[in-house]
Amino acid sequence: MSPKRVYSRDPEKLLEEGRQIVSSNEYGRYIYRVVLVNFVLAGNTVSCVPEMSGVAVTTLNGWVGKIGERERL
After folding, report:
1. Radius of gyration of the chain (CA)
2. Using 50, 70 and 90 to split pLDDT, how confident is the model at 73?
3. Cβ contacts of 7 within 8 Å, gap of 6 or more
4. DSSP code of 1?
5. What is the pLDDT of residue 72?
6. Alpha carbons 26 and 3: distance in angstroms, whole number
7. pLDDT tens digits, residue range 51-66?
8. DSSP characters for 6-72?
């Protein structure tokens, strides 16, 4: 078992700051979506993403689905 990480600042506040940063402009939102889709494509379940990202499962499924649509073109 890994030792519990200790933060100098509240992890929830850091997570919220990170969400604000990635949503501050179009490029940041795009990169954020790519990272979350890659997370799923790497074998992680779609259902665990909303807990860490705040993105709804249906939204993430839509993003992953768009990748499949591009493959069929």
Report:
1. 15
2. very low
3. 14
4. -
5. 46
6. 37
7. 778 889 899 889 888 8
8. --SS-HHHHHHHHHHHHTSSHHHHHHHHHHHHHHHHTT--GGGHHHHH---HHHHHHHHHHHHHHHH
